[in-house]
Design goal:
The protein has four helices and seven strands, in the order H-E-E-E-E-E-H-H-E-H-E. By secondary structure, the chain is an alpha+beta fold. The protein has a single domain, classed as Pnp Oxidase, Chain A, CATH 2.30.110.10. Strands 1, 2, 3, 4, 5, 6 and 7 form a seven-stranded antiparallel beta sheet that branches. Strand 1 and strand 2 form a beta hairpin. The longest helix is centred in the C-terminal third of the chain and has 9 residues. It is globular. The protein starts with a helix and ends in a 5-residue tail after the last strand.
Length: 149
């Protein structure tokens, strides 16, 4: 999953409060914390209040899908901000790391459901022209308690 996220780091994430819509954010990955995804957001962002959250990810090639459950909290650890900072982030925060609206959001993943769509050639042809796809022509699906798979 992390390899796929590095190639297309956009995730839809929202609070699991039945009121908030999800929004697209750019994932910031720290290889030392594989069950945590970081996001730079504005302090006025609806996610800044924290709480239970759900995130959905579709890989750039649309062959891998993930639904992640966990919680978000603001964690303005200056060492982590320094570690994750980039020119792309700076484009959103013109005053740099000292921008008064800058917040670092930590998403701690509790569990995930992952799907990999790796259809066989026969399965792809059946999708194009009709026909029942057999189990051995499908991709794979996993429910995991951590994202190291």
């Amino acid at each position: 999953m992390w390899d796929k996220l590095e190639k297309g780091p956009f995730i839809m994430i929202g609070l699991a409060d039945d009121e908030s819509h999800s929004e697209p954010l750019t994932a910031q990955l720290d290889k030392d914390q594989v069950d945590t995804i970081w996001f730079f957001i504005g302090k006025d962002n609806r996610l800044a209040k924290g709480g239970r959250a759900m995130a959905q990810f579709v890989s750039k090639g649309q062959d891998f899908f993930a639904c992640l459950s966990g919680s978000v909290v603001i964690d303005n650890d200056t060492a982590m901000i320094d570690k994750l900072w980039s020119k792309q982030v700076e484009a959103w925060f013109p005053e740099g790391k000292s921008d008064p609206n800058l917040a670092l959001l930590r998403f701690d993943i509790d569990d995930a459901e992952l799907w990999e769509a790796d259809l066989s050639l026969t399965g792809k042809l059946k999708m194009l022209f009709g026909g029942k796809i057999r189990a051995d022509e499908e991709g794979s699906h996993a429910v995991v308690s951590n994202t190291i798979v």
